[in-house]
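Homework-ish question, so no full write-ups if that breaks the rules, but can someone show me the predicted structure for this set?
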Amino acid sequence: MIDYINAITLLANYIIVPSLAYGSQLALGALGITMVYAVLRFSNFAHGEIMSFGTMISIFIIWLFQSIGISINPLPTALLALPFSITATIILLLILDKTVFRYYQQQRVQPVTFMIVSVGVMFFLAGFIRFLIGTSKKNFDDGERFIVKASQFKQMTGLAEGLSIRTTQAITVIVTILLVIFIFWFLNKTRTGKSMRAFSDNEDLALLSGINPERVIIITWILVGVLASVAGTLYGLDKGYKPFVYLQLVLPIFAAAIVGGVGNPIGAVAGGYIIAFSEAFITFAYKRFLTYLLPKEWAPEGLVQILSTEYKFAISFVLLVIVLLVRPTGLFRGKTL
Amino acid sequence: MKKIIGVSAAMLMLASPVIAEDIKIGISLGFTGPLESLAPAMNNGAQMAIAEVAESKSLLGGSNVVAVTGDSTCADTAAAVATGERLVTAENVNAIVGAMCSGATQAVLEGVAMPNGIVMISGSATAPVLSTVEDNGLFFRTAPSDARSAEVLADILKEEGYKSIAITYVNNDYGKGLGSAIESNFVAGGGSVTINAGHEENKGDYSADAAALAQAGGDILVVAGYADGGGGTIIQESLDRGSFETFFLPDGMYADSLTKTFGSQIDGSFGASAGTDSPGDATFKTLFADAGHEYNVYAGEYYDAAALIMLAMQAAGSSSSSDLKDHVMDVANAPGEKIYPGELAKAMKILAGGGQIDYVGASAVELIGPGESGGSYLQYEVKNGKFETVKYR
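A: Not a homework solution, just the prediction itself:
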């Protein structure tokens, strides 16, 4: 019996806890991309840099708070900074909308043109962020670091395997759940949310029934700003902020959005967790896990790894290709909110 | 008529061998990309040497020398070649300092330097393959090859009494070369390697990598990666999950940002990097700090790289790469008067007077074999949350 508990603790410590946190970060990012796709109908490659921008503002605010001694120990100061970074990110997005995206929207350009425009915005933002905060890595998690430490857990339970849960991981998951509930409530229950869905479903019909397109677009950018700055800040809080990583983060986020079905918010959330968990489960070495479960003489000698971790990054793309081949609209039908 | 002009022009050149000119030195580093946080210090190192010589007006009869920078990135070899191409054809640089990462360096060497006959000196490209690559005598490096480093590192691990190790390496020329070289050296010495797995740089999440390493086990985790990148994050994950407590940290991990992040959590972790107790190192660091720059690894090697190019020009009496390439080894090695950082003007004077120098510089330069640093190593350990030097070897 104790062997089974050890085996489950092992999985929880190495796969379930970290993947839940990572999956939540991807889910929030994918949700933002999906909203832009559903309403504005283009793939926003600048999303990673928008997340990075929000994180940067959070860091500036945190530094300010730390210098004047404001904190909410044991919780990280980042939570206090979130409202400010959300506001700043929304302002940035509205400016970008007014100066860049609005024009192409009115011209009704091809999605491909729009996508390239977003790549341009991405490069601009990348440079702008480096200009302001520099390129080096910054850690801004303060407050209590662990909820449960591996060594404490071992002492408490007497198990051979430890379980550790970082505060940032718990915060990530909780904030994600709250935010996702809010977004779904907003889209399904409020008048504005319904008009967004109508607009995304059929733009012309929505216009005929008197929905103001400008208002819908502005509300979309506001939601995207909330999602992006929260996702970015949570990610940076959990793993450290480095501008370059946010560029790379766009790829798994897109994979998550597409696997779930682009344009479908439920799909985006599910896709985030699917990508995170598949990476962990497929590259995990099951040697010790099996040693607990199997009789002694059957204990494996090798690592019992399905794929080496070098291929971790390929997994999300293999998944992407399979989904696109078998079910091109994604697991949950995409395209509309 | 043409002939006469040509001949007289040639005569003129012979008659006055040194004419003051504008010399350009290209500095091609990964200002953007996975190692962008290290590039500024390297650039400052190289710029410092160039500024020192330019101020003294001692190079080739008072020639002016300026630096032209270019972004070689680190991972994107096509961008590195395009930058190299721009430096050589549009900016007409006489020689190139860089590129920074091994992959980019090899690409620029093969795509730009060799076709155009331009000398390249890198201060940080350490992949073993660069020792054997065809270079027409144009490529040098002031950093030692990882093949040599790996021997030293495996020796240290054995001396410290470790029998089984887990290795994670950053999946590029540097990490892969270093990881497999440590493995082969360590196994040859009777140790065992539980896992030798790569990780991609700058990815969103490393919990899967850390999990696989934890399952394989081992007495110590060798992290052949980057402190600000995946290497640092894997250490974080391993500590948090309680899977490893001590880490072996090669040069890519030897950064103050690492100890700033982890503090005394990684006490007892150790490693070695290219380093020297030569007085030049200390002199350089003081000069570097006085100039208001923040020190980082390989800044000294880049000072030396730029200095070697200019000294070789002086020794050759020409700013052209085809002439200076034969003099790099002469100025770098004995015999001659030892030259330390900040003494470039003195060296120029000696060379102009026909004397010989043995450039020591910031990194105790001694070029061996195919024109690379033989390397002296600094062994360090984390004590009370700080890197402390244990000894030099």
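Now go work out the reasoning yourself. Hint: Chain A has a mean pLDDT of 90.
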